[in-house]
Amino acid sequence: MQFFSVTKFDKSKYIPRNFEKMKRLYPNFQYSVIVPSNEINLFKNFFLDMSINEIEIIDESVYISLKEFKSILGQYLKSTKDMPSKTILGWYFQLVLKIAHVIRKDFKNNITMIDSDTIFLKKLKLFEDNHSIVYKTNYERNLHYKRSCEDILKTTKQNWESFTVQIFSITNQESIDLRKRLNNYIDQKSMNEGEWISHILLSSIFKRHSTLNGSFMSEQDLIGTSNILSGSKIKRSLKILRSFVIGELSPIQEKIASFFGYSFINYEKWIIKKERLNYFDFVIVLFINNHYFHKFFKKIKKVIF
Predict the structure, then answer these.
(1) Which residues pair with 144 in a beta bridge?
(2) pLDDT at 162
(3) To 5 degrees, how large is the angle CA 273–CA 279–CA 284?
(4) Secondary structure percentages of the chain, helix, strand, coil, to 5
(5) Is it the case that residue 299 has pLDDT exceeding 80?
(6) The pTM is what?
(7) Average pLDDT of the segment spanning 197-222
(8) How many Å apart are CA 265 and CA 247, to the nearest integer?
(9) Do 161 and 221 contact (CB within 8 A), yes or no?
(10) Closest Cα partner for 204 from 156, 162, 152?
(11) Nearest to 153 by CA among 199, 196, 184
(12) Whole-angstrom distance, CA of residue 248 vs CA of residue 210
């Protein structure tokens, strides 16, 4: 079993904790992190301080540097004044790195991407019958993601289902299939994976938008949709703790959440407001992330806003 994350050092806090969870849940696993060149030593020292020496650290420039991605983006902008903020730029850059990592030509084994701010609560089945399992929840349903998938993969989805759930899996054969589909969109020619994926992503976005300032694409939806075209099945059973997670769960709270069927926690930095969840907060988190309530809450939100 192989896992990987793409992360900067300021989002590395939960990696050791999730690494320990993986050791218990997935024997004989391997874990890699793709990180900025100038932060490699920070990660090495961090893992050393945590007595972790099994995590592979990959320099992101193996695929493409942020400077190179920014230069390619410049080819699509009308003016340098249209260059997006560092946050937006970095968000799209990490999409490129994730896709480039799983379609590389030396990719041989099944692999799972998990966001670095996500922690497993229980074992999640990731592959079945030589295919990845594509999980769906009702947390996101971005129609921009739908249009990007339809454009790049040359498919039409009547009943759009989003797979943006902080995790995706892909087999070797699904990776080969994805490469073929991406090559049908833009021929790779002599470009390396990072350059190639950058042009695919940006070409698709700028077909429909004059700016990069917006959430227009999801690598999880792109890969999930491609995997379904290759024969993967959708499972709708995934329950995650994400909304209103304003503080960290205690070990006991993690066990309770696991008992109620939640597979992992997503600690998004912009949501965190306090160090720990008290039990009143915790009950709200369990309630608000329940599929039925969350779906109802989103409908009410649409009506109000």
Answers:
(1) none
(2) 87
(3) 70
(4) 50, 15, 40
(5) no
(6) 0.93
(7) 95
(8) 11
(9) no
(10) 152
(11) 184
(12) 39
Residues in the chain: 305
Cβ count within 10 A of residue 7? 23
Q: Which pair of tokens denotes residue 233?
A: 């099945």
H/E stretch holding 169: strand 167-170
SS3 233: strand
Per DSSP, 276 falls in state: B
DSSP 30-75: EEEEEE-GGGHHHHHHHHHHTT----EEEEGGGT--HHHHHHHHHT
Residues 93-117 pLDDT 10s: 999 999 999 999 888 889 999 999 9
Mean pLDDT of 71-76: 96
Find the mean pLDDT for residues 212-232.
95
φ, ψ of residue 190 to 5 degrees: the values are -100, 5
Q: Is 222 in contact with 149 (CB distance < 8 Å)?
A: yes
The DSSP result for 244-261, as a single string, is T--SBPPHHHHHHHHHTT
Interatomic CA distance for residues 245 and 121, integer angstroms: 14
Helix (H, G, I), strand (E, B) or coil at 13: coil
Condensed to tens digits (0 to 9), the pLDDT of residues 271-296 reads: 999 999 999 999 999 999 987 666 65
Q: Between the CA of residue 119 and those of 15, 55, 137, 268, what are the distances in Å?
A: 8, 16, 17, 11
What contacts 53, CB < 8 A, 6 or more positions away?
A: 47
Q: Which two tokens stand for residue 201?
A: 């992503």
HEC per residue, 154-165:
CCCCCCCCCCCC
